[in-house]
Fold:
Amino acid sequence: MDLVVVILLYATMGYYLWLVSKGKPIPQMRRIPAMDAIEEGIGRAEEMGRPIHYCPGDFGQISGEWGPAVVAALNLYKYTVGLCAKYEVPVYTSLPPVAEIIPLVQSLASDAYKAEGKPELYKEEDILFYGPSASKVARCGTVLKHNVALNVQVGVFYTEIQSHAVARQIGAINIGGTTRWTAMYGQAISCDYVLICEEVIAAGTKASGDPSLVGTLAGEDIVKMILVGLGAISIVLGLMRSDVLIKILKM
Structure:
């Protein structure tokens, strides 16, 4: 059964990638409320004359089991910085406590400002690395010190509630998201808008604007729908005391 799922996954993803390569239409992604809220929050920050704060997570490795989520968070970060460049809103970035991500984030921010035709607004000193021992406390200090109007923290977190609480006290909008379901509770109780688990991947894909990523996401969703359908059928057959599906799966 596992082999069938893998083959089906590769087949659907390959099909949508083929459509992309031929310039043919692929499924369009729905609007994501948290992404809309980011632009609204940046517009609000411009009106208030206040900066925003962004943190792409506690994990900074782009390899390993959290790699896709880190890449998605960085795609959303570049999208956010691009909007800040467009509206000329300062953005303070709190980096994960992993030094290898520093040049990558600096490059993404610089490219975002260049894409908007405003490279002079890029300030490397606004990208902050605190190290592993004091990152959570330092994030709270950054939010409070700069009196931010929008606090965006999307990525892979151990847990995150402290800086959201500080942001709420100064009247900032909180937008959070993590792919770790065990850390989801902190985001859910402290944020105005939340990206729940796989929504982080979807938001990163949408923010990237890359049709190939959209195609692979569409392929994965097709397989998920098939598996959910099989699950529903198995429940119905189980209630009918039928072993037809079990016999098929054992073939």
Observations:
- The chain is about 55% helix and 10% strand.
